[in-house]
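Repro case for the chain-ordering regression, as requested:
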Amino acid sequence: MRRKVIAGNWKMNKTVDEAKEFLKEFIPLVENTENEVIICAPFIALKCLVKHTKGTNVKIGAQNMHWEEAGAYTGEISASMLKSIGVEYVIIGHSERRQYFAETDETVNKKVKTAHANGLKPIVCVGETLEQREQGLADEIITKQTKLALDGLTNEQVENTIIAYEPIWAIGTGKTATKEDANNSIKKIREEICKIYGQNVASGVIIQYGGSVKSSNAKELFTTSDIDGGLVGGASLKPDEFAKIVNY
Ligand code: 13P
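-- result from build under test --
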């Protein structure tokens, strides 16, 4: 049985003080869960969050990183910088980065490789637009994104990669994919991984759903056969609401 992994993506929200306040309320609410809990926060809050989650079951992730190890890349953050402060996860290829910051399948793949080389676990986002879904292209888009993101990885690295299926039309819109649609898309992603890396690897990979997850729909989504938890945006900003999702 695959474990359930529930990750919050805070996006560009919360100051360091607000992040600390969040933890005070949130940690006691999730201390009895068997699910894996991750908070992906803005860079400047990461060190503080790592410090204040030591000894708890809450893990910390970043929302992006550069693919180069170091150098003249003004404004960027490297994988080794994240690793050095105790960050364990990093979101790669979120649709907002693909849309607003020129992230491509190629840069996603480079970042995924660098993350693994530095012992960080990537959470790779894939997902189709509404137009692509309406044209019947969703499966093609998400399997291609998955294949290119994982290109050149070892079986072990693929096993240590989390995929987040996030249909773009469901992000921040209040419009959630039905559990059947989400499950079918995730099955397609798993089949693609199976074709390249074999059944053993494919059946172990964690594939989350993301897009307007909230406490009122978490249970039906996360108890569907192929959905291994969620990547949660807006609803992860409030400790009680995010805790309800974690404890679905
Ligand atoms: P919302 O949960 O706010 O729709 O955002 C989803 C998302 O983009 C998580 O990465």
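Ordering looks correct now. The chain is about 45% helix and 15% strand.
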